[in-house]
Write a structure and sequence with these properties.
The structure is a single chain. By secondary structure, the protein is of the alpha+beta class. It has a domain of about 260 residues. Helix content is about 35%, strand content about 15%. It is built from 20 helices and 19 strands. The strands form four sheets. Strands 1-18-17-13-12-9-8 form a seven-stranded antiparallel beta sheet. Strands 7-4-3-11-10-2-19 form a seven-stranded antiparallel beta sheet. Strands 14-15-16 form a three-stranded mixed beta sheet.
Length: about 575
């Protein structure tokens, strides 16, 4: 192969895991720390202060859901680069009393007055990423109250009190969030209201600087005291509608008032004896199940984590699943998504037969009849003393969202509508009152009917790829939950998308530092385009239930500012 330049460049940038890690007595060389183990409760979030808030709520007698809501509210303040009440939410909850797993889809719908014809009139082939056009109804607040109404114990005033206090008194920015805040500032400062909230003194706050958001404190306080209708049917909804109308938007008071979340039944596949659960579309969770089903036909354990054989198969399985993701995944109120067929073992066998073990494919067909690389998100998980567990993910979508920041409320509205197709006849085509395709996906694992692990991986299209790699690391390669998150990851980009992009060149494989030069060479020899990249490999949290010892095991990886902790 005449690829000497890329090979040399990659091999020079690729070093062994041993060379970048501390000398640990136990565990894999790339592991950053030991797992966290506690008997009574556990929380894992992407911000240590949020983790502490979750534990404080548990100690007050709150449920896992109470603690998760409290942490999510804190992250909306402390990590607005990934989440906030201007965005959407999904959750999977294990109710230990009922021995039952339930799912919540708290994603919002498109404005009723915005039509496909309006996009065409403006000459747009894609929904723009910023400004008023990609704004959809924010579903997170309703999601909080749906979860709290079914599983909460403490009053919402108690649950939101820590976030309110931090919003008024301020908190110091952590390193990774400060970095992303600065990046978002440059592209969003022009949108009305954004700078007043997020750019004090005309600039983004830096690491260690105290940031306050009294507007958000007032908003949280009103929601805590007045309930979800304050947000969806009261003055806040009117303020959002008025702001959007004044700034060329379509989201209205009526859209806010009509919003509702949906309780759903998670769907699962069994991977080597473990039941892996995801939320059905409009999210992308079943892509992880499709990839696992395809990979189950191979002896991955014999290949090893750092092998071109495994990484090649992982990449090709991802490509196959993402062709179906692009073709079928959409709001199931508007489209007939063949979920059961897509996640069946028989279908996986058919798709697996398309993989050449020695050669990367430039393109794959979607199954017959049967700009999403971006996405900033927070994932958190909490478990309480009664055995209840919640897997929760929440997002503004792209960074800090649309940039549209209603006056006086302290948060930015999401740009999730960017994920619609504008191709007539596509299942994910834009329609009024429709939920867009969603990238954020919580996950859960059970075995023999018992809860085993609540986990997630933040990061746009990386999420199903991340879910699969975490599980393969544990089940096939024998890693513990901390090692599984710390291990170097692969990220494939360039797949076909539900927003009309079509893969014709096989896409690109990005590798984190830590894979061997031999593995890089093996991928190149199979025809993959391989590169290294900084970031984009997701952010992982997990809680594992050790039934033998009656304890929880928590993990939070080093790519983010997060922390797992328990008591």
């Amino acid at each position: 192969m005449k690829r000497a330049g890329p090979i040399v460049a990659l091999l020079m940038m690729t070093v062994s895991p041993m060379s970048i890690s501390a000398d640990r007595l136990l565990g894999k060389p790339f592991t950053t720390r030991s797992e966290v183990i506690a008997a009574h409760g556990m929380a894992a979030t992407s911000q240590p202060l949020a983790t502490q808030i979750a534990l404080d709520i548990l100690r007050q007698g709150g449920s896992a859901v109470d603690a998760a809501i409290a942490a999510n509210a804190a992250l909306g303040l402390m990590e607005p680069t990934g989440c906030g009440i201007g965005g959407d939410l999904f959750a999977i909850v294990w109710d230990n009393g009922k021995k039952e797993l339930t799912g919540l889809n708290a994603s919002g719908r498109s404005p009723g007055s915005l039509t496909l014809e309006e996009f065409k009139r403006r000459g747009l082939e894609k929904v723009p990423p910023f400004g008023p056009l990609p704004v959809s109804v924010p579903g997170a607040v309703d999601g909080w109250f749906e979860l709290h109404g079914r599983y909460g114990r403490l009053p919402m005033t108690n649950v939101l009190a820590p976030a309110i206090r931090y919003a008024r008194e301020g908190f110091p920015l952590s390193e990774v969030i400060a970095y992303y805040w600065g990046r978002n500032a440059e592209r969003l400062r022009e949108y009305p209201g954004f700078a007043e909230v997020f750019l004090p003194d005309g600039r983004a706050p830096v690491k260690g600087e105290i940031f306050r958001n009294p507007r958000l404190a007032d908003t949280y306080e009103a929601i805590a005291e007045g309930g979800r209708d304050v947000f969806y049917r009261g003055d806040m909804a009117r303020a959002i509608g008025d702001y959007m109308a004044e700034n060329g938007g379509f989201l209205s008071y009526e859209d806010m008032a009509a919003h509702r979340s949906e309780w759903v039944t998670p769907v699962a596949t069994n991977y080597r004896g473990y039941d892996v659960w995801e939320i059905p579309p409009n999210g992308q969770g079943i892509a992880a199940l499709q990839i696992l089903n395809i990979l189950e036909g191979y002896d991955l354990a014999s290949m090893g984590h750092d092998s071109p054989e495994y990484l090649h198969l992982l990449t090709e399985a991802k490509k196959l699943a993402f062709e179906d993701r692009a073709r079928f995944y959409a709001d199931m109120d508007f489209a007939d998504v063949p979920v059961e067929k897509l996640i069946s073992k028989a279908y996986a066998k058919l798709r697996r037969s398309l993989i050449d073990p020695k050669r990367a494919a430039a393109r794959y067909p979607a199954g017959d009849d049967a700009q999403l690389e971006h996405g900033d998100t927070i994932y958190l998980t909490v478990a309480d003393s009664e055995g209840n567990m919640v897997s929760l993910i929440q997002s503004n979508y792209r960074g800090m969202g649309s940039g549209m920041t209603p006056a006086g409320l302290g948060f930015v509205l999401q740009d999730r509508g960017e994920a619609f197709s504008l191709e007539p006849g596509h299942p994910n085509v834009y329609e009024p009152g429709k939920r867009p395709f969603h990238t954020i996906i919580p996950a859960f694992v059970t075995r023999d009917g018992k809860p085993l692990m609540s986990f997630g991986v933040m990061g746009g299209a990386m999420q199903p790829q991340g879910h699969v790699q975490i599980l393969v690391n544990m089940i096939d390669f024998g890693m513990n939950i901390q090692e599984a998150g710390d291990a170097p990851r692969l990220r494939h980009t360039g797949s076909s998308q539900p927003t009309d992009e079509v893969m014709t060149d096989g896409g690109v494989v990005s590798l984190e530092t830590g894979f061997s030069p031999e593995t890089v060479r093996g991928l190149l020899e199979r025809g993959h385009r391989v590169q290294t990249s900084m970031g984009g490999y997701g952010g992982y949290q997990a809680i594992y239930r050790d039934h033998e010892h009656g304890v929880y095991i928590g993990a939070s990886e080093s790519r983010k500012d997060g922390q797992a902790s328990g008591y």
